[in-house]
Amino acid sequence: MEKKLTAKERILRVAEQLFYREGVRAVGIDRIIQESGVAKASFYRNFATKDDLVVAYLELHRERVMGNIAHARQQRPDSVLAQLRYLMEYTADRMKLPTYRGCAFMNTAVEFPETDHPDHVKALDSRNEVWNHIEDMAREAGLPKPRELTEQLRMLWSGAAMVAYINKEEFKPQSFSDAANALIDSQAAAAAK
Amino acid sequence: MEKKLTAKERILRVAEQLFYREGVRAVGIDRIIQESGVAKASFYRNFATKDDLVVAYLELHRERVMGNIAHARQQRPDSVLAQLRYLMEYTADRMKLPTYRGCAFMNTAVEFPETDHPDHVKALDSRNEVWNHIEDMAREAGLPKPRELTEQLRMLWSGAAMVAYINKEEFKPQSFSDAANALIDSQAAAAAK
DNA sequence: AATGAGAGAGACAGATCTGTCTCATTTCTT
DNA sequence: AAGAAATGAGACAGATCTGTCTCTCTCATT
């Protein structure tokens, strides 16, 4: 028997879909209230403001992304470098899904450009946490310049996310994987000589 | 003696600054009217809607970007490949400027996610025109897979623009240039063997 | 000097969005 | 079963934004 979802859960579930698919600014509170079948009072009892909901949405997304990293670590238990390569490939493949609408953190940061806006701050913090973890992996893998490599991978991955979002039809996961591996190999080669 | 700017010119000039610095959705018509010292009627005599102004802003930006490409071609008249490398380095260096706020085309596309929104369409068209030109350069340079390389450079450059925008303090033009050259070299090496 | 286009100032309408409040009803706890 | 807490429905206020309209003034052309 299915558990009945609480108002808060329904709101968050609908918000996640709508915010990601149509953008945070484009989706109003009324829309979320209507589609989640919740009363306005119930909404504001669970979230003080819309921004609070946005922060909760970003937090949910952060957890999912960290889950992806954990997944990659489990899939390639023997080599951290293999975990890195797998993570890049795995996420790039997912960008090809028709539901892919870019990186929620980047999109939200762009939608709220004021650097001290709570949504902007939360988006950046989440993004940074993820990439700090990846940098740790690069360091753990014993690569000579984990910092530089992570910077490069972050640029490449971030751009891939944008291309997959805006120029979906032209995005080729293989091109991305090739490029990512070229960057990793390039650094490994520089270290070997 | 300085020429007096017409209302339209003043509006466009102010709009370019404000839209780029603070985002299109965040800047209202009233703000632009006030800061350009123009009457509301004068605004709507020159631009039918706000979207029309946004399209004009993007068109202006497109011209500037194409100007950057022309600049790169002039700076390295002998080798198209050198033009490509120069263009990447030149634009990456400019991303380090404190006024840099990311790629206007990507930002606007994210701000208006509806794919048939006139601002979204104009942003995408402009972006595609630029990268089609770069692909032509890669082809002209005699590279084996100009398409793939351009895709990779577009991902890397787009991500660099985002990093330079959102994580400004951590952006290193040198890391970008290294990565871009690694991608170019990687393809050249693959072709040579 | 006369005329007409362009421009400034700002009130106003209409739409939209966030957030508040009331009240009846349902659901959970004990 | 009874009281307490959560929920649904929706009116309403207040802010903000786009776009319209009127009226006046300036300036260039003739």
Automatic annotation (TrEMBL), chains A, B:
PANTHER family tied to this protein: HTH-TYPE TRANSCRIPTIONAL REPRESSOR NEMR, TRANSCRIPTIONAL REGULATORY PROTEIN
Species assigned in the record: Paenibacillus sacheonensis
GO MF terms held by the record: DNA binding
UniProt entry keywords in alphabetical sequence: DNA-binding, Transcription, Transcription regulation
Stretches assigned to coiled coil: none
Domain of life: Bacteria
Full protein name: TetR family transcriptional regulator
DNA-binding region of this protein: 28-47
Record-linked PROSITE patterns: HTH_TETR_2
Domain HTH tetR-type stretches: 5-65
InterPro entries xrefs: Homeodomain-like_sf (IPR009057), HTH_TetR (IPR001647), Tet_transcr_reg_TetR-rel_C_sf (IPR036271)
